[in-house]
Design goal:
The chain is α/β, with parallel strands linked by helices. It is 45% helix and 11% strand. The chain has a six-stranded parallel sheet, sandwiched between helices. β4, α8 and β5 form a beta-alpha-beta unit. α1 runs antiparallel to α4, α2 crosses α3 and α3 packs antiparallel against α4.
């Protein structure tokens, strides 16, 4: 994979719609889950190491994605299921109550914007791009974060998706009546934000976040020989569109 970080002044003249992922692209999200996992592993410490418990939670989450989808509720339900499994149904109701409380706390975390987010959105709006959000997660939680962020005013459309596969992006573009060559996706996940958009003929900018959910990681062979445009931060994209 060749990661292009050079300055590319206005090299995408056909772009009309710019779509942003939300979690860990516009605001902080993943670190909150990692903090919760530390607390959960402390509750279950007599049943396994933090690495073992975390691995089992991820396995349960992945198995449950078709049922619960992405987001806090699915995470907490998967943690409770894992706790019941690893304790062989011996977990005390008080500990389950603590886990549920972690979910409530996650739902109330502050929305912390990443650097230069609002400046970038203001600039792109002035350049007459149509801006949208395309993100996965729990509907109510994502709506809460968008509302608290103060960013909703910049977006023509908000799409909270159950998944981000090629078919999901095709459906989104059909709804927006936009061709793939006129569409740019910006996000932190190669698996969800970049690869499926490139596969359908759209453009994509990858902006890595320092923490990535393991489920979103890709194998090296999946990105081999791909020319993925990557930037260190969001403000750098303004030189290319």
């Amino acid at each position: 994979m060749e990661r292009n970080q050079q300055k590319m002044k206005r090299t995408l003249p056909n772009i009309k719609v710019i779509s942003f992922d939300a979690d860990d692209t516009l605001w902080v999200n993943e670190p909150y889950f990692r903090e919760a996992e530390v607390e959960i592993c402390a509750i279950l410490n007599e049943y396994g190491s933090p690495e073992e418990i975390t691995r089992k939670i991820l396995r349960t989450e992945s198995r449950n994605l078709p049922f619960y989808g992405y987001g806090i509720k699915g995470f907490i339900l998967s943690v409770i299921e894992t706790a019941i499994e690893v304790t062989e149904r011996k977990i005390h109701a008080d500990d389950i109550a603590k886990i549920i409380k972690f979910g409530h706390e996650l739902m109330q975390k502050p929305v912390i914007l990443l650097d230069d987010v609002e400046t970038v959105l203001q600039t792109l709006t002035k350049r007459n791009f149509k801006l949208i959000v395309a993100t996965k997660g729990d509907l109510m939680d994502q709506e809460r974060k968008l509302r608290k962020s103060g960013l909703a005013k910049y977006f023509h459309h908000i799409e909270i998706m159950s998944n981000k596969k090629e078919s999901d992006y095709r459906a989104l573009l059909s709804h927006l009546e936009i061709k793939p060559e006129n569409f740019l996706m910006i996000g932190n996940s190669l698996k969800s934000d970049i690869l499926p958009v490139l596969a359908i003929g759209g453009k994509a900018f990858h902006i890595p976040f320092h923490t990535t959910w393991e489920h979103e990681e890709v194998r090296p062979e999946e990105i081999e020989n791909l020319d993925i445009v990557q930037f260190e931060n969001l403000s750098q994209i303004l030189e290319s569109i």
